[in-house]
Amino acid sequence: MNLRIFILSFFLFVSGIGLSQVKFVAEVSKNKLGMNERLRVDFEMNQDGDNFKAPSFSGFTVVGGPNQAVSNSWINGKRTYSKTYSYFLAPTSRGKFTIGQAEITIDGTTYKTSPVQVEVTAAVDQPTDGNNSDFVASENLHLVAEISNSNPYLNEAITVVYKLYVSPRVSVSNWRELDNPVYSDFWSQNIDIRQLKIENGEFQGEPYRYVILRKTILYPQKIGDLDIEPLTLSVSVDVPSNRRDIFGGRLYETVDKTVAAGKRIINVKALPDANKPAGFAGAVGKFDFKVKPGKTELAATESLTVEVEVSGNGNLKLFELPELQVPASLEKYEPERSENVRTDLNGTQGSVTDNYTIVPTQKGKFPIPGLSFSYFDLNSKSYKTITSSEILLDVAAAPAGSSVASGGLATGVKQPVGIVENQFKYIKLNPGLQPIGSGSFFGSWSFWTLYLSPFLLVVLGILLVKKRTELANDVAGNRIKRANKLARKYLSEAKKNLGDQTAFYIALERALHNYLKAKLHIQTTDMSKDKIINLLEERQVDKSTIMEFMSILKSCEFARYTPSSSVAMREDYEKAATTISALDKQL
What we know:
Blueprint: H1 2-19, E1 24-28, E2 32-34, E3 39-45, E4 50-53, E5 60-75, E6 78-91, E7 95-99, E8 103-106, E9 109-112, E10 116-121, H2 133-139, E11 141-147, E12 158-166, E13 171-179, E14 186-191, E15 198-203, E16 206-220, E17 224-228, E18 232-244, E19 250-260, E20 264-268, E21 284-293, E22 297-299, E23 304-314, E24 330-332, E25 336-344, E26 347-360, E27 364-368, E28 372-377, E29 382-387, E30 391-396, H3 408-411, H4 445-473, H5 475-496, H6 501-520, H7 529-538, H8 543-558, H9 566-586
Parallel strand pairs: 2-10, 21-28, 22-30
Antiparallel strand pairs: 1-3, 3-6, 4-8, 5-6, 7-10, 8-9, 11-12, 12-16, 13-18, 14-16, 15-16, 17-20, 18-19, 21-23, 23-26, 24-26, 25-26, 27-30, 28-29
Helix pairs in contact: 5-6, 5-9, 6-8, 6-9, 8-9
């Protein structure tokens, strides 16, 4: 009997020693992966340690981590503790690699993990990955530059449409441009997008939502291979996590991703040399050409306007119009350019006109030669020439009394200038001046006004200072004013989108997050509900105010999946304004 008790006690003692031993291991999500997959490495310990040192991860690039997770539980009176450091790695080349030893110090003793062998193969058709929010965001967010024609002619319009594709598995809360493309070898013009519109479509055969961020018209100015620089964005992506809130709803983690549309190369063709007209000035598109005189019958010294107009669709702003030629007996002034064009995805359309002012100097009939305008027609891939008709001006004699009628302008003989009666009548001969000293300044209204004004200003200044002091001493009133002003400031964007459910709740949620970032000095990635509640409780905010704030965040999450009326949106807006105001007074 004593022997049995001794053996049982011995095994219990050994088991106790085994349970108290330190466990520090390295685990990988897979031992074999493709070049287009990600590897998750967990360094797990059963006791809390210090001075953790990760290995160098030779052959990989760290794309996520280190993420730290701690688990501490009691089951049947026994404590279970676990602490894990997680890394997400992207392979840099194929081959066999070793995940080196990590180190940790526990109670003054250094522990190391065992090395782990990993093999990297060629890219696989269907990559799989662990719970890496950064990777999930990368796989479900794509910025694409769609180009209408990658092999245009010189000066032929092409369009570049930038689309941001977002998978239904994630959502985008905010984005901003990091790097705008510079079209150095193109004449470019952006097309205004008044309001971003979310549309449904497909990307690589899968259903996606997309929004058109930018539309640009380009006219290549050189032949050969031209680069279209990429557009680069920073996007805040909300990725679902494995955690859930107290209501059972899935919590989202916000990841800031940088996406680029990628550089595109355009091969520009030269315009054909065969049958190129002598007067060709570089017009490419489809045009009409007209030369229109304002009138053809007039008197000498009377002016007329001749319009040289090109209308149609093409590079209207990138070529010169033919110059109007007139006989020596007609005086021609420099033309005034007028443009009536618009630009859309179909190119630049409208008309460009040179307006010439012409003045005949003598009587007679004067022909103005017709003009020729040539352009390259993209439909027929050939040159077209339009020639206007000749304009014949019938100039009558100048009116009686003019310099031309008396032969002055034609012969160059000086003519006497006639004096017209009362031609200087506009000059005022009696200004109504009075001699100095005719009136006394002392005792006048002007004297007393200037004399008393300094005293009045002093009294007014005292009243203003007193009023300002009263306002400054009103601490409660000023605090309420500042709180309300701050609430309206953050919620101004949401108010603009009342009626549009998706845009309103995205703006409302962003306003709440921005307010917390400004007041609590936390980042978007730290904005879990538990974290927000803890921080607000630490600042001694009322529990009712905290629950109101969290309920508004919950409404923003539910709005992604359930329809909402305009009345509900108005109520959520007013509730958010009141709650932010109350929070600001308490913070």
